[in-house]
């Protein structure tokens, strides 16, 4: 995703949409490598900011992103409801 920015002067922000590591391959540095590669890709496009979203309960990912210098700028909430069975 590319954001045109507040003044519409061209994209300045990109998003790393999904990063996932198979549980069988955790703790091998793959999440770090994927995140760094994603930000390098965005920088290579000339973007000045990159964003990603993470579930706050995913403490391993939160720790990783903080160790890479990412800052929390917004907290979103999602609401879920189980739908009753319909005939």
Chart the SSEs and their pairings:
Blueprint: E1 2-3, E2 13-15, H1 30-44, E3 49-51, H2 59-67
Parallel strand pairs: 2-3
Antiparallel strand pairs: 1-2
Number of strands: 3
Whole-number total of structural domains: 1
Task: Give the radius of gyration.
Answer: 16 Å
SSE order: EEHEH
Number of helices: 2
> How is the biggest beta sheet arranged?
3 strands, mixed
Give the helix proportion (percent range): 25-40%
Sheet with the most strands: spatial strand order: 1-2-3
CATH superfamily: Gcn5-related N-acetyltransferase (GNAT)
Give the integer mean of the pLDDT values: 87
Low-confidence stretches: 1-7
Strand content: 5-15%
The general outline is extended
Class by alpha and beta content: alpha+beta
From the N-terminal CA to the C-terminal CA, the straight-line distance is 39 Å
CATH structural architecture: 3-Layer(aba) Sandwich
Can you identify the CATH class?
Alpha Beta
